[in-house]
Amino acid sequence: MISERIPVTLKPVLKPVTTALAAESSSRLDLYAIMTLLLLLVYPSSFWYVRIPITVLCVSAFVFRPLRLSPPFWFVVAMTVMAGNYENWFLVDNHKYLLGYWCLALFCCLLTATPEKSLALAANRLIAFSFLFAVFWKIASHDFLDSTFFHYSLLFDERFRSVSELLAGMKSEMMDANRAAYHALLGYDSRMNAVQILFTKGITYLARLITWWTLVIEVAVAVSFLWPMGKSISKWRDFVLIVFILSTYSVAPVLGFGWTLIIMGLVQCDSRYGFVRWLYMAAFVVLQIYNLPFRAIVGGASS
Amino acid sequence: MDRERLKFRALVWSAPLLLCAVACVQIYLALTKTLSPWKGGGFGMFSTVDSPDARFFRIYLINDNEETAVILPDSLKTLGRQVQTIPSPALLTELGQRMAQARWAPYRLTDPVRQYQNEQSPDDSLSGLAPPDDHSAVKTLPDGQIVFPKLLRMEEKGAPRIKPEEAVAFQKVRVEVWKYTLDRASSQLKAAKFLETTVDAQK
Fold first, then answer.
1. Is the pTM of this model over 0.90?
2. Long-range CB contacts (< 8 A, 24+ apart) of A288-296?
3. Hey, is the C-beta of A177 within 8 angstroms of any chain B C-beta?
4. Which residue of B has its CA nearest to A182?
5. How high is the ipTM of this complex?
6. Which residues between 114 and 153 in chain B have a beta carbon less than 8 angstroms from any beta carbon of chain A?
7. In the predicted model, what is the mean pLDDT of residues A220-234?
8. Taking 60 as the threshold, does the pLDDT of residue A97 lie above it?
9. Contact with chain B for residue A74, Cβ under 8 A
10. H or E segment and range at residue B183
11. pLDDT tens digit string along A155-210?
């Protein structure tokens, strides 16, 4: 009598548990979809024939919730992004390629029976391979390891100007003189073959430091993500990626790239460590703070 | 069961494998051709000074022995960017031909008030135009227009048309692609010619 009753009493107990798990997984997938849609909206393509369809698709997905987890929807989004990249391959930055692959991964993984698991695996591989190729280029390049590239960036890339002035002792007048020399060399009617530039010893040291830090952190991300999941160094991959995001984008705020990495990092992170998710969310907030016009704020306050 | 696993793997790996395929093509093009490591989906950004911005143009309209340097026109900026990203003789010739087919004339600035007044009572605003071979100095025409004989513009859609009498004569267009590098030892930014083509003007 009892043995007959057990299955009857167990059935309703087990069913809600399964449904709750499925609902939790579905809500997490929904969160990843929303973050990707926001990324597509906030950092849109500069080509109208990509930007307008993507805006319409994203707004539709915010209004009609089922679209967010619909494979055909993500197929259209992925194809639109990738068609824009294909058409303008010589203009678009690498993170736009990564965004296209990510949308394709969303489409493919939503077709599987376990979309959250498959998406985590795809996100992990996308991060691993993108860093593997980034490391390849840094080693293969003729002017990276000798720190020439960062030496140049610290002197001529406006994004590095604050760092050069704050940490390397470059005076604003020296930066302006270098900028004038640059324009003299590149002017449309210039006949010059070389211009003299000014820099402090600090630039040499800082360029060397940034070069080696970049190489070490990118190798660490590539290795920790390529390592079999759950084993030794792989357990540290989220922390390494977050350190990369926080350190790199504090100097060069390519926020679209940072955001893409945060979404993929969040998707693939080990669900056993709940606080890691919060670290990714904190990194997302910090990235936005990096975008504040600090120079203007400090300059405004001092004047 | 195996078929399901295969399908799962194919779906999971499709995006990462596409990333690898594109990156391998990019590496091949950058190492064997002229593609800048910064572009093409190979994740070579922030690895070298040799970005498309480090490749720049010097363009000349040639008339007999005289060369006039010109700026790359806005309508050719996209093609120009392609040349900067992956320079090739064919692309450079195409760029040169597009410039050689067009009319060129000195830039003019017009005082908006004078232009408004002229449009109310139009007169011959070109009456004081300097002949094309006079490249001596900046000129101010009687209608208030300032003409820059040495600063030429190409006729493009959306910009004022160039009248035949304004057009400058030239026989050839020479387009050069230069590349700069940082020489830390001498503290110099050095530029070297990378590619060059000369195209005959089309009458």
1. no
2. A288/A255, A290/A249, A290/A250, A290/A253, A290/A255, A291/A253, A291/A255, A294/A162, A295/A162
3. no
4. B189
5. 0.88
6. none
7. 91
8. yes
9. no
10. strand B172-183
11. 999 989 989 999 999 999 999 999 999 999 999 989 999 999 999 999 999 999 99
Flag if B85 and A252 touch (Cβ within 8 Å).
no
Portion 38-77 of B in contact with A at CB < 8 A: 39-50, 52, 56-59, 69-72
Neighbours of B33 (CB within 10 A): 10
Half-sphere exposure of A301 (CA within 13 A, CB side): 5
Q: Which two tokens stand for residue B46?
A: 């922030």
Residue B25 touches partner A, C-beta closer than 8 Å: no
Instruction: Report chain B's terminal Cα–Cα distance, integer Å.
Output: 71
B134 Cβ contact list (under 8 Å, min separation 6): B149
Q: Which residues of A touch B85 (CB under 8 A)?
A: 90-91
pLDDT at B41: 96
Cβ of A101 and B192 within 8 Å? no
For residue A135 the two structure tokens come to 């490391």
Distance from CA of A266 to the nearest CA of B (A): 17
Q: Which tokens go with A103?
A: 């949308």
Interface test with B, best of A102, A106, A141 (most B CBs within 10 A): A141
pLDDT digits (tens, 9 = 90+) for B103-138: 998 887 777 777 677 666 655 444 444 444 444 567
Contact between A69 and A29 (Cβ < 8 Å): yes
* Interface contact flag, B47 A137, Cβ < 8 Å: yes
Pairwise CB contact (< 8 Å): A126 & B15: yes
DSSP A194-230: EEE----HHHHHHHHHHHHHHHHHHHHHHHHHHSPTT
Copy the structure tokens of residue B89: 């003789």
User: A46 burial class (0-12, 13-18, 19+ CB within 10 angstroms)?
Assistant: exposed
Determine which of A144-153, A215-224, B42-51, B114-123 has the lowest per-residue pLDDT on average.
B114-123
Q: pLDDT (tens digit, 9 = 90+) per residue, B147-183?
A: 877 788 888 888 878 888 888 888 999 999 999 999 9
Inform me whether the C-beta atom of residue B11 falls under 8 Å from chain A C-beta atoms. yes
- Average pLDDT estimate for A252-264: 90
Nearest to B8 among A112, A133, A182 (CB): A112
Chain A from 193 to 222: CB within 8 A of any B CB: 193-199, 204, 214
